[in-house]
Amino acid sequence: xxxxxxxxxxxxxxxxxxxxxxxxxxxxxxxxxxxxxxxxxxxxxxxxxxxxxxxxxxxxxxxxxxxxxxxxxxxxxxxxxxxxxxxxxxxxxxxxxxxxxxxxxxxxxxxxxxxxxxxxxxxxxxxxxxxxxxxxxxxxxxxxxxxxxxxxxxxxxxxxxxxxxxxxxxxxxxxxxxxxxxxxxxxxxx
Amino acid sequence: xxxxxxxxxxxxxxxxxxxxxxxxxxxxxxxxxxxxxxxxxxxxxxxxxxxxxxxxxxxxxxxxxxxxxxxxxxxxxxxxxxxxxxxxxxxxxxxxxxxxxxxxxxxxxxxxxxxxxxxxxxxxxxxxxxxxxxxxxxxxxxxxxxxxxxxxxxxxxxxxxxxxxxxxxxxxxxxxxxxxxxxxxxxxxxxxxxxxxxxxxxxxxxxxxxxxxxxxxxxxxxxxxxxxxxxxxxxxxxxxxxxxxxxxxxxxxxxxxxxxxxxxxxxxxxxxxxxxxxxxxxxxxxxxxxxxxxxxxxxxxxxxxxxxxxxxxxxxxxxxxxxxxxxxxxxxxxxxxxxxxxxxxxxxxxxxxxxxxxxxxxxxxxxxxxxxxxxxxxxxxxxxxxxxxxxxxxxxxxxxxxxxxxxxxxxxxxxxxxxxxxxxxxxxxxxxxxxxxxxxxxxxxxxxxxxxxxxxxxxxxxxxxxxxxxxxxxxxxxxxxxxxxxxxxxxxxxxxxxxx
Amino acid sequence: xxxxxxxxxxxxxxxxxxxxxxxxxxxxxxxxxxxxxxxxxxxxxxxxxxxxxxxxxxxxxxxxxxxxxxxxxxxxxxxxxxxxxxxxxxxxxxxxxxx
Lengths: 190, 500, 99
Description:
By secondary structure, chain B is an alpha/beta fold. Helix content of chain B is 39%, strand content 14%.
């Protein structure tokens, strides 16, 4: 049976274990164990693929020898337990996750730029409501998340200079991330 | 799949060629570039390109140069401006705000269980207080235009809430000055003259469901004590007449109707088109059944192979094209969305077919109980026990808190085409979009596996069909397809901004 | 008694601790550290003390520990990228961009 990963993958029944190519699949009663070479799949891909099954199966990860990883899936009761299908889906998901990670790494700049534009455009700058919703007490009364109390020079020009003094980094932090600071207040209040 | 070409050497693209994606279409090879230009080359020309051969001044060289496929000929400023224009939807937050004013519904539909409650379930009505909070939150959006869409359930069941929202939103919007519009998705069977008067006077655009000819519609949408079809048709005609009485152009102002293509409907593509045209509809949206509104056990009864759907789609759109050739102006909505991107280089901002997708950053859904969702699909999944897409509650949420919610971030990342396996190398990537909620529902992962995705199958099938038509290049057909990309704004339905 | 082994390369110790605390009302647990991993022994509790089927508890604990491990690894990543995603927003709020 070809699951599109190893090309010559063999699936065997009833706890019989045979290693074919670089992937081994063992089908037991209600369980399936898939072993593979970890050099093909980064850990994040393994986690990502395992997580996809967590609502339908009990999932266990283990080491199966040098550079080999074992994923065991046991179908939860009441859920369909087609072992071969689970094994195939797991391998497809591993491949998809690994590929996605590599694409994401290659396109990181583009992704960050689109995501930032989308989030920035949708959220917009913090508004008065958000400031009013902030918890203001003695400790936070002099926080200036929008940089309102700062001079224009302080806010936009003096970033380097601000790093020098002992008190300056505090001002610089709010100046350089004036959108991030009010957000913390927003999340607290929601 | 492009056939294997015997190269006899390692492939090497001509140095001047920009990155391309390619696909066999009707015997030729379709090339697209990352910014959405497209061109057809023959198999022989493609083989030459793959060997690195491209003679300056040749026919293929000229075609590639004209379409921004050669680096030395690309007007970078122009391309950059066009790209920015296409993505301008990213500069604003959600403009569509769906209010589920009640889950109660007087019809029972085969494909809708999660989104309805029995008529005595008054606890599923949205209270006026909550409705006001929804309006207040919706008006916080950074979008200069917003549409409040009344949904259900059947929104006419909770008509007092609808009226309250309309009046309250108009009053509150005086401080915001947004272009404000209202739409209502209704089966129309609970309409009466008084409700109609209010809706017409307050410019609430009406949208209904027609699932095909009378026998199919009536079978799929059961109305106790009456015919769901004849009730809908009666009111479609009445509403359309009311627009005419106001002096509005009936080709632009009429009740919009939506199709849910079920297994029964698949057998009647031409009859469905005829039904819509006879009702005066000028836009037909051939939507396949979606997986959100029903439980797993129902799926087996109403789902179907998407190859059947693609066949249905081709037959129906050919039939629509025939109507157009005879002078009847009617379009298919899916085709219009893709063609606007393919032929005009514009993005019509259809939320499910854009990159990144429109969940939360393009639309929000507000449930009757005040829960806020990234989309209506997310809301329907909540009704089947999956709370993955709840991002807040109108009683406590702040607008920016919603937009910066970790689920929203995940949905954006999961719907950028350039991150998806398969999408990244798909010829149709410049025009397409993925819907993470659909992936989550059908495959258990936001990112999805496109080769197994029914939505991808539908999108690819439709674009294959459209590019085949463009390859045939029949002047009359191309003219019709171009006409489908002309957007005519329904300005009557916009309550113009009047910020004080 | 059921024994579940968690390899340290794949499971976060804090996640396992949290899982054990969460399921403590349903079974008795013994945690052991051994070379390369953690062992969790699960023993049944009487039903009248809230006990549940130990094999089911062990399986649910296993999933919870994995889910929590993944969440913790993702949380570390997103904390690292938080600053990057917030920065351009400052730019979009500037007058030039808004125009």
